[in-house]
């Protein structure tokens, strides 16, 4: 993730490093959130796939709404 410091230059050509830093932190946070969402989605997909292959349809429904049960099964199946 590269930051274009030219975007933070004033009319004198000086770079406002505070603004550049704050923006880079915001961009990093957004990137981290996106990665976390993707990872969580993939983990849930793995769990649902495993449960469907085992014919555990009621468990699929339960993991959709029960966070503790979902975490327990992810642990049980080595997804976490």
Give a structural overview:
- The protein has 80 residues and is an all-alpha fold.
- It has one domain (5-76).
- The protein is 70% helix and 0% strand.
- The protein contains three helices and no strands.
- The protein has helices spanning 17-53, 57-65, 67-76.
- The longest helix has 37 residues, at 17-53.
- The chain is rod-shaped.
- The model has no long low-confidence stretch (mean pLDDT 90).
Rounded mean pLDDT score: 90
* Order of H and E elements: HHH
- The count of strands amounts to 0
Which geometry do the CA atoms define? rod-shaped
Ends: how far apart?
28 Å
How many helical elements? 3
**Count of folded domains:** 1
Structural class by sheet pairing and helices: mainly alpha
Determine Rg (CA atoms, Å): 21 Å
Low-confidence stretches: none
**Portion in strands:** under 5%
Largest β sheet strand count, sense and barrel closure: none
**What oligomeric state do the depicted chains represent?**
single chain
Helix share, percent: over 70%
Write a brief caption for the model.
The protein is mainly α. The chain has one domain.
